[in-house]
Specification:
Blueprint (H helix, E strand, L loop, with lengths): L2 H24 L13 E8 L3 H14 L3 E8 L17 E5 L3 H6 L7 H6 L10 H5 L2 E2 L2 E2 L2 E13 H6 L11 H11 L7 E3 L8 H7 L19 H15 L7 H8 L5 H8 L2 E7 L17 E4 L8 E11 L6 H11 L12 H4 L2 H7 L1 H11 L2 E4 L6 H19 L4 H11 L4
Parallel strand pairs: 1-2, 1-3, 7-8, 10-11
Antiparallel strand pairs: 3-10, 4-5, 6-8, 6-9, 6-10
Helix pairs in contact: 8-9, 14-15, 16-17
């Protein structure tokens, strides 16, 4: 190449460089120094048996948010599950049940999350199941982002079913299937029962809704009790027959005597092979989260049986930001990230996670089928701020249930009495 050609080529390169420099000067923001984000640390409180899950999440989060460190603080269930035991003064962000919302608002302990949601264009609130968001909303404001949902499922002892040659229950099973299993597994001489009710008889509530009955006119926004609803009476007549007519299900008092001791006697009976089925929380499966060892038996899990419809009792855990948080924006980034991950113990609250093939592969097709069936039915999510009259009415209802299962009163008489006694009507 000649000297003149080389000179011309260098000249063209210089011109290009000059144009680029001008663009850098005149384009908005170009040429300015981008400030380095401040290093911040936020404290996050969670239940102790979720530690491994959140350790993984915190590590993944820090890789994409290197200027934010999440300091984990594990809390034991006994000091964290009840609203009055939540010590949120020393944490920036935390996860707690929906039942704690009213207490947290009364203490002015949490921030309204609507401003964060509105400013974060990548956060898709419609992806969450609406009822779960609603249970973390009060006064038209969103106070927490759903972290996961838990609900009652039916666990069954496969070893016991095999011993008595009883087919396993399947997704979509009915009240008739449930009754047949209870009768087939009952072995009085061996002190074995097919099913046992919860100690407070609260497991009767989903049976009421499965039959089309109800205990209040609207669970989310109740204005009156409906204890004497004809379908509610019918449901509890069926429930009472399991105990009084078929003599195949024990009362709570009989169960304590048969299984020994107090406290968590139903779970112990299930593990000892004295109980074929029991209604427990999804999060209790396998014993991985509430006990130190996994269940030492072959077990299965199905949704609760259905009658006119399917129904189960549910509760939501949510991510809250403390009103004392020093870095609320960093807390929000952690919440937005964590709510998009599949929890270990609970069920995801985002449709995109539950319906993804990856979720089925992670938890197994049987568990995924239970989740989808249960979410498709009636989820009995109770309001987070009940009037005092409604709380008193729930105690009256449980007293009526005790009269029913003991045989001292018929379901119709007991429920009419409960409705008359309720001041919330």
């Amino acid at each position: 190449m000649s000297f003149n050609g080389l000179h011309a080529k260098i000249g063209r390169l210089s011109l290009v460089c000059a144009v680029l420099c001008l663009l850098l000067v005149f384009l908005p923001g170009c040429g300015e120094t981008v400030p380095t984000p401040d290093l911040v640390t936020i404290t996050f409180a969670h239940l102790a048996f979720d530690t491994a899950h959140y350790e993984r999440l915190a590590q993944d989060f820090n890789e994409s948010h290197p200027y934010i460190t999440v300091e984990l603080r594990a809390k034991q269930p006994r000091e964290w599950m009840r609203s009055g035991d939540l010590s949120v003064d020393d944490v920036d962000v935390f996860v707690a049940q929906d039942s704690a919302l009213a207490w947290l608002l009364e203490q002015e302990s949490i921030l309204n999350l609507d401003p964060f949601i509105e400013q974060d264009g990548s956060f898709e609130l419609p992806d969450f199941y609406p009822r779960m968001v609603e249970n973390l909303t009060n006064g038209g404001k969103t106070w927490a982002v759903p972290a996961g949902i838990d609900f009652l499922v039916m666990f069954y002892n496969q070893d016991l079913f095999d011993r008595y040659d009883v087919p396993y229950p399947e997704v979509g099973w009915t009240w008739d299937d449930f009754l047949n299993i209870v009768l087939a597994l009952h072995d009085p001489e061996a002190n074995i029962f097919g099913y046992a009710p919860s100690s407070d008889l609260s497991d009767a509530v989903p049976f009421i809704y499965q039959h089309g009955g109800r205990v209040a006119d609207d669970l989310q926004h109740p204005t009156r009790t409906t204890f004497d609803d004809p379908l509610t009476i019918e449901a509890l007549e069926w429930y009472a027959k399991l105990i009084l007519e078929y003599d195949a299900v024990p009362t709570p008092a009989e169960a304590r005597r048969a299984f020994g001791g107090s406290g968590y006697y139903i779970g112990r009976a299930f593990l000892r092979g004295q109980l074929g089925m029991w209604a427990g929380s999804f999060s209790e499966r396998g014993g991985r989260y509430y006990s130190s060892t996994e269940w030492d038996l072959r077990w299965g899990m199905v949704p609760l049986p259905r009658d006119k419809q399917s129904a189960t009792i549910a509760s939501v855990e949510g991510y809250y930001i403390s009103s004392q948080a020093q870095h609320p924006d960093a807390c929000w980034q952690w919440i937005a990230f964590a709510s998009g991950q599949v929890p270990d113990r609970l069920i995801p609250t985002r449709r995109s996670l539950v319906e993804a093939t990856a979720y089925e592969q992670q938890v197994g097709s049987d568990v995924a089928a239970v989740v989808l069936e249960s979410l498709g039915g009636e989820l009995l999510l109770f309001p987070t701020d009940l009037p005092e009259e409604a709380e008193a009415a729930s105690g009256i209802f449980l007293k009526a249930m005790e009269e029913i299962v003991s045989g001292r009163a018929s379901p119709e008489d007991a429920l009419k009495w409960a409705q008359q006694q309720s001041s919330f009507r």
